[in-house]
TrEMBL record:
Keywords: Carotenoid biosynthesis, Oxidoreductase. This is Phytoene dehydrogenase. Belongs to the carotenoid/retinoid oxidoreductase family. SUPFAM superfamilies: FAD/NAD(P)-binding domain (SSF51905). Residues 18-505 form the Amine oxidase domain. It comes from Streptomyces camponoticapitis. The lineage of its organism: Bacteria, Bacillati, Actinomycetota, Actinomycetes, Kitasatosporales. InterPro entries: Amino_oxidase, Carotenoid/retinoid_OxRdtase, FAD/NAD-bd_sf, Phytoene_DH_bac_CS. Pathway: Carotenoid biosynthesis.
Length: 524
């Protein structure tokens, strides 16, 4: 495994999102002094927080899977997840509601889910579910160690017996067809393939290997931190601070200083290839933070601007669909909703075509509705409820542009509420007391390329060793982390990306399981 050159005693991590916090904890555990620079006033990045009228709103991801990865980050500094965070397992993990009026609770326990599938679609489908579950478990076991939790120096690293095992499992076929080989019921097939949307690829075109995301959602378990998802980055930041990390909040990184001098809007343009300091602010407000190495976690366009170069790709990056999100604090709720509810429209293949090809809004939307107050009522005032409605939409490169969303956003918000009322959430619009609407224009304003928080799509040409690398040419001591680099999009993979970035700095491990642990409370 290639690592950064030269000394690495003091590392500056740019960004206190989940990737940056994961990198910080693993770096601290390997004995490095760490400074975390964050433009916001609190940790979290995409996993942000908003308080409005007594409602405590998570502005980022709402689904937490694979808590062992969180545990591993805490363990790097001798800490324990249970001492920092109260994780509540969700039973069911999801509730699925279909256009024909049928509904299914998605359980992560094998027996409970098999019984639910049998009730929903009969004994043959229940048997198919058990075989599908076994396949997902094998798929995960082959992929995690070798292809997800791994640093790639070259595509040649793929040449391993596990690649043959992955092929034997059908991992290079198409996701929709492979799931269909186990389940005949089209509604059930959606449950185990809709996750491909967040990877930016329709299930009919996605590699079957991407079913590993369905494993995380439907087998490994879904959790919710008491206090909301933002409690996760807060807990990680507290553990890192207790282990000696220096946090600089409210500091926007404006350029990187390189050996050889020079000045530029993004990165110094001198002849040196080593970053010697991170500069925040401008003019008289500039602060210089010396470093031996730097971990960059902003979205790719921001990172490349700071580095002063964009790696050459023969084919431009393709970006995932975006999302419109309506956060709604209401004076009532609806018993049919679970903590997470997927409301499917009748359309399926056409929906993906709209989102990834034609660039039009969903004509028959499938929506994710999260009701966190079902698990933690403290997130809303007494007797009130919080709902998060996510509608996938095209990114700004293929769909409506940034300027169009000023008028389109409120109209689309109204159409979503009307559609949900038609689907049984009577009086939803009138029940809203506080709300926050987020559109692709808002994601773009936060620096996300193509107006999407889901970054580069997971096409074959943008996966594994073909995804933007976490080591970049032109500098000897900078590493990338976050959803734009390896291994990709999602809370589990972003946590892994921080660990992989730390391994590039420290040389400890190969990016597989196991980082060097430090004594709790160690100060650099």
């Amino acid at each position: 495994m290639k690592t950064v050159d030269g000394p690495t005693d003091h590392v500056v991590v740019v960004g206190a999102g989940l990737a940056g916090l994961s990198a910080a904890l693993h770096l601290l555990g390997a004995g490095r002094a760490v400074t975390v620079v964050e433009r916001g006033t609190v940790p979290g990045g995409r996993a942000g927080h908003l308080e409005r009228g007594g409602y405590r709103i998570d502005t980022g991801p709402t689904v937490l899977t694979m808590p062992d990865l969180v545990e591993e980050a805490f363990a790097a500094v001798g800490d324990k997840l249970a001492e920092r965070l109260d994780l509540i397992p969700l039973h069911p993990a999801y509730r699925a509601r279909f256009a024909d009026g049928s509904a299914l609770d998605v359980h992560t326990g094998a027996d409970a889910m098999a019984a639910e599938v049998e009730r929903f679609a009969g004994a043959r489908e229940a048997d198919g579910y058990r075989r599908l579950r076994g396949w997902l478990e094998k798929l995960y076991a082959v992929q995690m160690r070798r292809f997800i939790d791994a640093n790639f120096d070259s595509p040649l690293r793929l040449l391993h017996p596990d690649l043959v095992r992955l092929g034997a499992l059908g991992g290079f076929g198409r996701l929709d067809a492979r799931v269909g080989s186990f389940l005949a019921d089209e509604r059930l097939r959606r449950i185990f393939s809709f996750q491909a949307l967040y990877a930016g690829v329709p299930p009919a075109k996605a590699l079957a290997a991407y079913a590993v995301i369905a494993y995380m959602d439907t087998v490994a378990g879904v959790y919710f931190p008491r206090g909301g998802m933002h409690a996760l980055p807060r807990a990680m930041a507290e553990a890192a601070a207790d282990a000696g990390a220096d946090f600089r909040y409210g500091h926007d990184v404006t350029r990187l200083e390189r050996s050889g001098g020079g000045a530029g809007a993004g990165s110094d343009t001198g002849s040196g290839d080593r970053i010697t300091a991170v500069i925040t602010g401008r003019g008289d407000d500039q602060v210089r933070i010396p470093c031996d190495a730097v971990v960059l976690t902003p979205d790719l366009p921001v990172t490349y601007r700071l580095l002063g170069r964009r790696p050459y790709r023969t084919v431009p990056l393709r970006f995932s669909p975006s999302a419109v999100v309506l956060h709604a604090g209401t004076d009532r709720t609806w018993p049919a909703l679970g903590h997470h509810t997927i409301s499917f429209g009748r359309a399926w293949k056409g929906t993906f075509r709209e989102l990834t090809h034609t660039g039009s809004l969903m004509s028959d939307p499938s929506l994710l509705i999260t009701r966190p107050t079902a698990t933690d009522p403290s997130l809303a005032p007494p007797g009130r409820h919080l709902h998060y409605i996510l509608a996938p939409c095209p990114n700004t490169r293929i769909g409506p542009g940034v300027t169009e969303w000023a008028d389109l956003g409120p109209r689309y918000r109204d159409s979503l509420l009307a559609e949900l009322e038609r689907r049984g959430l009577d009086g939803l619009g009138a029940a809203i007391e506080e709300e926050c609407l987020v559109t692709p224009a808002d994601w773009a304003a936060q620096g996300h390329a193509a107006g999407t928080p889901f970054s580069a799509a997971h096409t074959f040409a943008q996966t594994g060793p073909f995804r933007p690398r976490n080591l970049v040419r032109g500098t000897t001591n900078a590493v990338l982390a976050g959803c734009g680099t390896t291994p990709g999009v999602g809370v589990p993979t972003v946590l892994i990306s921080g660990k992989l970035a730390a391994a590039r700095v420290t040389g400890t491990g190969t990016g597989g399981r196991g980082t060097v642990r430090a004594m709790k409370g160690r100060r650099p």
